[in-house]
Design a protein that fits this description.
The structure holds two protein chains of two kinds. By secondary structure, chain A is mainly alpha-helical. Helices cover about 60% and strands about 0% of the residues of chain A. Chain B has two domains: about 1-120, GMP Synthetase, Chain A, domain 3, CATH 3.30.300.130; about 145-185, no CATH class. In chain B, the strands form three sheets. In chain B, strands 6-9-8-7 form a four-stranded mixed sheet. The chains are: A mainly alpha, B alpha/beta.
Chain lengths: ~290, ~190
């Protein structure tokens, strides 16, 4: 069989050959997304966006490591971790869509919201640093997220509970990957140790924000739907202490805190605008495109 | 619910009406069971434990599948393959549903599936004890000890990377036969 161009060749007889463009665009297809009667649907939608945006934006930063990782194996590892988080983001953004009743697809949330409508913590969006910074950021992010997801398994929203139960298994591997790298770098050469310590220092000012609950998180936690981030600080500190001790690294002596609004309120760092410009450029250039 | 045929691997089964083909009756379940995983083509979706149920509701065949990993792009291909296989077998109305809970675990890969993985040079997952409560322990060393080499059977292997060509596989190397190999990692 011959084709005039490569595009024709790969799209030939597209039935069953290609996963995309086949109409399966709802990752929650067939799942009962009814909001439990006594749960505030608006709050649930916003909370789903918070967790979904954390995953989406962190995934995007990890994807930017493709072709830049120190070894092929780590390139593959980072792409896999990014893919897991993207999968979680798809489910969570779809959960938000089902809860807010607009009937929008997951793509609308990813590609057509403005910066102030994103609810991710600022740690996820920070400009990409070196491999030491990546390792520190991934360890902090995965340790925090794993603690949250583990509590969310008991959420009264069955969709969030199911997404969390799957996510726990995935993020356990992400945390181990980052922890093992941080130990190798910290307990390695003077050079690698300095990079790891520098990476921790760079992200440490954004750590307190992770445990500062938004009103919606607090309300839903009281209703048994959300995990209160303030409640996972102890577990986070224990895990970090264990890794840093094995890595012979110090807890950074960096002042940081949250005064006023931050990522959960839609207030972001300068890096976020640039990130979204890249993430959204294709969809905005051709808003009717399908894939 | 357990049907007359007994509980089968992969969930509850209701045999669908059946299309006549080649003189025999082909059940929707039998057709769905022939569909293979796009990334591990030696395994059927039933071997993998991804096929949770095949039921019939007023002429519509409803197939329930569960994702291995939430981001697994093979999910869309699986849905597509299931729909096409059932269409070809004479079931025009097919709906594929996602089931998220209980979450997929490698414990659901069947004994036959494990044998097929070894035959293809992929180390099958082991059965892991899962903590029922408390914080998930951090793993700073290789988890669960070494994976047995699917080529020579040696336990003298080392983990090269937690993450392989697909989300479900890790990379290893055998210290005896020196062959690199993949392992379906336990989740």
């Amino acid at each position: 069989m011959s084709f005039d161009n490569a595009y024709e060749a790969i799209t030939e007889g597209s039935d069953g050959r290609w996963a995309f463009g086949t109409g399966f665009d709802n990752p929650l297809a067939g799942i009962d997304t009814t909001v439990p009667a006594d749960v505030n649907a608006g709050d649930l939608a916003l909370y789903s966006l918070m967790l979904g945006d954390d995953a989406l934006i962190m995934s995007h930063r990890l994807q930017q490591w493709c072709t830049s990782a120190p070894e092929l194996e780590d390139e593959v590892a980072l792409a896999n971790i990014a893919l897991d988080l993207l999968g979680q983001a798809r489910l969570l953004l779809s959960r938000a869509a089902a809860a807010d009743g607009t009937g929008r697809g997951e793509d609308w949330y990813a590609f057509f919201r403005a910066e102030h409508e994103f609810r991710n913590v600022r740690l996820a969006e920070l400009e990409r640093g070196d491999f030491g910074e990546l390792t520190a950021r991934l360890l902090v992010f995965a340790t925090w997220r794993l603690a949250l997801l583990q509590r969310l398994v008991a959420s009264r929203d069955p969709v969030l509970a199911a997404v969390a139960a799957k996510g726990v298994k995935e993020v356990t591997y992400h945390r181990d990957y980052a922890a093992q790298w941080l130990v190798r770098l910290g307990d390695g050469t003077g050079f690698s140790r300095a990079r790891a310590q520098g990476g921790l220092a760079a992200i440490w000012p954004y750590v307190p924000e992770l445990f500062s609950a938004h009103d919606v998180e607090r309300r839903l936690a009281a209703a048994g739907v959300a995990a209160d981030p303030a409640g996972v600080r102890g577990e986070f500190d224990d895990v970090l202490a264990q890794v840093l001790a094995a890595a012979t690294l110090d807890v950074p002596d960096v002042a940081g805190g949250v005064a006023g609004r931050a990522g959960r309120h839609g207030v972001h760092t300068e890096a976020m605008g640039y990130l979204l410009a890249e993430l959204q450029s294709v969809a905005r250039a051709d808003p009717e495109a399908t894939w | 619910m357990v049907t007359a045929g007994g509980a089968r691997r992969g969930g509850d089964v209701v045999t669908a009406g059946g299309a006549r083909r080649g003189g025999g009756v082909v059940t929707a379940r039998a057709v769905a069971e022939t569909v293979t995983d796009p990334e591990l083509p030696m395994l059927t979706l039933a071997d993998l434990g991804v096929l949770r149920a095949v039921a019939e509701d007023g002429g519509t065949v409803i197939v329930s599948i569960t994702p291995t990993y939430t981001g697994c792009p093979a999910m869309d291909a699986m849905r597509d393959d299931l729909v096409h296989a059932l269409h070809r077998a004479g079931f025009p109305d097919v709906e594929v549903r996602t089931v998220l809970q209980p979450a997929w675990t490698t414990d659901w890969i069947s004994a036959a599936g494990r044998r097929k993985l070894v035959a293809a040079g992929i180390a099958p997952p082991r059965t892991v004890a899962r903590p029922v409560s408390g914080a998930i322990p951090l793993t700073l060393g290789p988890p669960l000890g070494p994976v047995r080499c699917p080529h020579c059977g040696s336990a003298r292997t080392r983990l090269v990377s937690y993450f392989g060509a697909t989300a479900c596989r890790s990379l290893h190397r055998c210290g005896r036969c020196q062959e690199p190999f993949e392992h379906v990692k336990e989740i």
